[in-house]
Amino acid sequence: MELNSLWANRSAVVKPSFAKLLAMRKICLCLFLLSLLAACGQSWNDPYPAADGGRNILYTAFTDRPKHLDPAQSYTEDEIAFTAQVYEPPLQYHYLKRPYELIASTLEQVPVPRFYAVDGRELPADAAVELIAESVYELKLKRGIRFQPHPAFALDSHGQPLFIGKNLADGRQTIADFPQVDSRELTADDYIYQIKRLAHPRLHSPIFGMMADKIVGLKALGERLGKVAKDLPADEWLDLDQFPLTGIEKLDSHTWRIRIKGKYPQFLYWLAMPFFAPVPREADRFFAQPGMAAKNLTLDWWPVGTGPYLLSENDPNRRMVLSRNPNFHGQTYPCEGEAGDREAGLLADCGKALPFIDQAVFTREKESIPYWNKFLQGYFDASGISSDSFDQAVRVNVGGDVGLTDEMRDKGIRLLTSVKSSTFYMGFNMLDPVVGGLSLRSTQLRQAISIAIDQEEYISIFSNGRGIAAQGPLPPGIFGYEDGEQGIDSVVYDWVDGKPKRKPVEAAKKLMAEAGYANGRDGKTGEPLIINLDTTSGGMGEKSRLDWLTRQFAKIDIQLVVRTTDFNRFQDKIRKGNVQLYYLGWNADYPDPENFFFLLDGNEGKVAKSGENASNYANPEFDRLFLQMKNMENTPERLAIIRQMNRILHHDAPWVFGLHPKSYTLGHRWLKNRKPNDVGNNILKYQRIDAEARAAARKQWNRPVLWPIGLGALVVLLAFIPAILGYRRREQRAAVK
Predict the structure, then answer these.
(1) Most buried pick, 236, 297, 304, 671, via CB within 10 A?
(2) Backbone CA torsion sign across 306, 311, 316, 319
(3) Which residues pair with 248 in a beta bridge?
(4) Residue 530's beta-bridge partner residues?
């Protein structure tokens, strides 16, 4: 009995332990088999749902979350990537043609202004600018354009808004929580309503000040709305239909006129921006209800438009999704372009209905390396090139030509390059007693600094060659920019062997000596010349760039003192003129020389006029030519004036002309119809995806490496062998006993 009892107790302990070992072995085998099965299906590292595989979806990324999607407020690149696909201004840019060409979007045609004198007489099209009191633009809508489905348009059985007032449930958190949606046709009233919104005191539209000086009556409307808003509770809706705008006349449901002060041909460019896109009164009323803003149920979060896409998902910290608008009206892919477009396959979809892509998924990627790796794996369809990835992607050949590396070409990746419609410059404060003014002494000092700062070296070191040295304010693609000897800054460059060559440092030192600063010392006082640069911590404020810049000034014996501060403090110093040197850049609002030259117009002085001329530059002859040039059509006469203006700027040197950045974009072979476009932002509707080719490439590039899994499973199984052998030995000993 005693032995049997002992065996029974031993069995109770040993047998369950062995059972557990067997169970663990089975689990490991099952996990191993499951991993193999999973590897045969969706790629092991695919970040997207398996159900989306093979769908007509474009995958891309964004780094900075958009702050405003309301067209009255939105004004940044990270925002217009979304707003330009949802909203439709009256005009748009031809997708393929260069120079950029305005074409109709929702209008029947691009409007041609009529000009009127002070006494109301209509003037001929070639009337002198000084005779024109007003320009009148008549805009006529195409018929049958409808808004996207939206709860703001939903009506009850009595024809009243379904989700206004008592019908608004507190539990709703997103637009998807309003299941009843409807639509209606786009009318002139929707465009007129949005123009009034530019004057809304609670919206603070960034272009209100400019447009108030252009659109007749808009300034007065802003003043009136400001007074009315003061007497209303903060959350009470301001019905703009109750306030007339004298500069807008509605002719019928699809036609309206806009009166502009004087002659302002650039107004057509503004009509291609989301600022002038239609906003329906119903949507404004819907989102203005109490409690909506607290849930992010606003036009700033959920735009409402007639464009090819609607915003179906908005989580700006993680993911944003644009989906095809089922109500989008008929537009087709262009059949004309510029030289080389046909050979590049950009005309293959001529005449086909837009848009091609059903959905665009934007994933937020804060770091460049994960973004880049996902692109190489095929999980993003296009990508820029960060400095960290430049050498892996691009090879600079002898002579400066840029091409793709073998790795990129083997993957079928294409490189798209273009010079952006932007300029970066170092500005002098022309009010400063040392570097400012138009005296010969200060002018020669600025010229010497302009020669000494080697922009070509800067572009090579800090931009991986992605830029061209600026010869003036105008970048390529803007009327008035000229290649060749005619376009160079002859103060800074010589024309040698068919290309510009920066003058030697000796030329800069000679100018320094002539200015009274031989060897970097003031000839009158003997004091060393010290110049201050104000900057922020980002961009030019990085230590490596500042060290380089300090060495550039040292070449002509100038001591550079860098004063780094935060952005708000920097802006305040610029506003008050408490700087000597500063760095800034400018992206084109529209492709016209006026949009760059106005940065140096004396009437735009930052200190005197609170304008955009941060250098406070004022040359009467330049200002006279600018006034003459800005309202002209692109004619040889206008080009001749621009040449005169550039020569004045080259001599006066209010800026050290820096660089025009180059855009380098990589696209996979399955992404079709992709062409760089700096001013036309509604580009998603033109692009096309070959989803089958993408799926095949992803499968090939992301094959799971199975041997570590198998090896791991084998290690686990081998770990059981000592336990099994030990158990068997114990069993054998027990049997002997």
Answers:
(1) 304
(2) negative
(3) 258
(4) 559
Strands 134-140 and 114-116, bridge-based pairing: antiparallel
Q: pLDDT tens digit string along 193-227?
A: 999 999 999 999 999 999 999 999 999 999 999 99
Q: What beta strand segments (E) does 413-490 contain?
A: 414-419, 422-428, 467-469
**Phi/psi of residue 38, each to 5°?**
-65, -35
Nearest residue to 86 via CA among 292, 279, 337: 279
Give the CA-trace dihedral at 103, 105, 110, 113, to 10 degrees. -130
Q: How many CA atoms lie within 13 A of 232 on its CB side?
A: 14
How far is it, in rounded angstroms, from Cα 579 to Cα 114? Answer: 45
Which phi and psi angles does 249 have, rounded to 5°?
-125, 120
Task: Count CB atoms within 10 A of the CB of residue 731.
Answer: 12
Over residues 637-672, the pLDDT tens digits come to 999 999 999 999 999 999 999 999 999 999 999 999
261: closest CA among 247, 271, 273? 247
State the Cα–Cα distance between residues 8 and 443, nearest whole angstrom: 106
- Cα–Cα distance measured from residue 590 to residue 587, given in angstroms and rounded to the nearest whole number: 9
How many Cα atoms occupy the beta-carbon half-sphere of 410 within 13 Å?
8
CB-based contact 691:670 (threshold 8 Å):
yes
DSSP 139-173: EEBPTT-BPPPBGGG-B-TTSSBTTSGGG--TT--
List C-alpha distances in Å: 698 to 45, 372, 377, 695, 701: 10, 15, 6, 5, 5
Q: How far apart are CA 729 and CA 351, in angstroms?
A: 82
Give the ranges where 200-255 is alpha helix by DSSP (H).
208-212, 218-230
Rg of the chain (C-alpha set): 33
pLDDT value for 736: 62
- Give the span between the Cα atoms of 299 and 283, in whole angstroms: 8
Spatial separation of the C-alpha atoms in residues 668 and 680, rounded to whole Å:
22
Contact 57, 357 (CB under 8 A): yes
CA distance 239 to 264: 30
Question: CA 734 → CA 10, 14, 59, 497, distances in Å?
Answer: 10, 12, 66, 99
Do the Cβ atoms of 288 and 331 come closer than 8 Å?
no
User: Using CA of residue 208, residue 210, residue 216, residue 222, what is the dihedral sign?
Assistant: positive
Of the candidates 466, 461, 499, 489, the one whose C-alpha atom is nearest the C-alpha of residue 646 is 489
Residue 31 has pLDDT above 60, yes or no: no
**Residues with Cβ < 8 Å from 705, sequence gap 6 or more?**
none
Please list the residues that pair with 58 across neighbouring strands: 360
- Residue 50 tokens read as 């398996």
Q: What is the pLDDT of residue 11?
A: 39
Residue 170 has pLDDT above 70, yes or no: no
Q: If pLDDT is split at 50, 70 and 90, which confidence band does 119 have? A: very high
* All residues at 6 or more sequence positions from 113 whose CB lies less than 8 Å from its CB, including other chains: 135, 136, 137, 260, 263, 265, 267
Task: Specify the DSSP class assigned to residue 540.
Answer: G
DSSP structure class, residue 241: G
Higher pLDDT among residues 423 and 43, named by residue: 423
* Opening angle at CA 589, ends 586 and 592, nearest 5: 95
Q: Which amino acid is at 373?
A: N
- The torsion angles phi and psi of 631, rounded to 5 degrees, stand at -105, 10
Provide the residue type at 494 as one letter: D
Nearest CA-CA partner of 89 in 270, 331, 281, 329: 270
Distance between CA atoms of residues 111 and 123, nearest Å: 17
Peptide bond into 334 cis (omega under 30): no
Q: Give, in degrees to the nearest 5, the angle at Cα 444 between 438 and 446.
A: 80
